[in-house]
Amino acid sequence: MAARYRISHTSRYEYDRNVVASFNEARVTPLQTPWQMRLDSAIAIDPVSWSYRYTDYWGTDVRVFEANSAHRTLEVRATSLVEVDAGRRPVAAAALAWADVRDATVADEFVEYLTQTDYTAPPAELADLAASIAADNPPPASARAVCAAVHDALTYTAGVTQVHTKAAEAWAERRGVCQDYAHLAVGALRHVGIPARYVSGYLHPSEEPRIGQTAVGDSHAWVECWLGDWTPFDPTSLSDVAERHVMVGTGRDYGDVPPIKGIVAGPHETVGLSVAVEVTRLA
């Protein structure tokens, strides 16, 4: 069953003194896909001197903008209206064998999703666990089991990791947030030869969201692996990636799809950063 959501994502930065200028990129606009229809989207920025919109190498919608007048606060508010119908998603090929996944043609096409990054490189313990799982299961079952193993090993705990935390560091802590779960799963899947990519987006926190219900949420992350087509798994919640999940972008790791990144000119300290995400089901 399709679901329609209104999403509001507001980021506000506060500085201890005026900054001369800032140049930024925002990746907060939901993707247009066969199963996800972007009905409306807008980004309001204060202050802003100019902005430009483009699609990056990984297929994510990016808003580039600059504020070249002195300012002590910067606010970016993105709103979107999205309809998600998970029934239109492609499904993994049930009979897919390791020879299909590890074929030279697949390795060549998806080399960027088979190469580890600093974020995703798995610790030896997880790499060995993934290899053991893959030795006893075909690719689709292995992918699901690897994500379950990451889910079972970690305790979701906010504040113990940061956006630049590496997978191995989160594994050592056995704690983390969705970004850490996704990096660990992506790294483990790549280790056994399954192309895997990091997905950023939003998740309505209620398993059965009511129409008209507004939920306070956050950005979310999960994974997609190539099993004849891109197949999603959510290692954080182990729930099906369905109508509650709204995709914003994909990449090799978090570094390819941060909600906002940029540079600021002038001596300053960031004294405040607030992020507010609201997800409302409309239909």
How is this structure best described in words?
This protein is an alpha+beta fold and 283 residues long. The chain folds into two domains: 3-85 and 258-281, Sandwich (Immunoglobulin-like), CATH 2.60.40.2250; 90-256, C8orf32 fold. 21% of the residues lie in helices and 40% in strands. The protein is built from six helices and 15 strands. The protein has helices at residues 98-101, 104-109, 124-136, 139-153, 167-173, 178-191, and strands at residues 3-19, 21-26, 36-46, 50-55, 61-67, 71-84, 155-156, 175-176, 196-203, 214-217, 219-226, 230-233, 245-251, 260-265, 270-281. The strands form four sheets. It has a five-stranded antiparallel sheet with strand order 3-6-1-15-10, with no helix packed on it. Strands 4-5-2-14 form a four-stranded antiparallel sheet, with no helix packed on it. Strand 7 (155-156), helix 5 (167-173) and strand 8 (175-176) form a beta-alpha-beta unit.
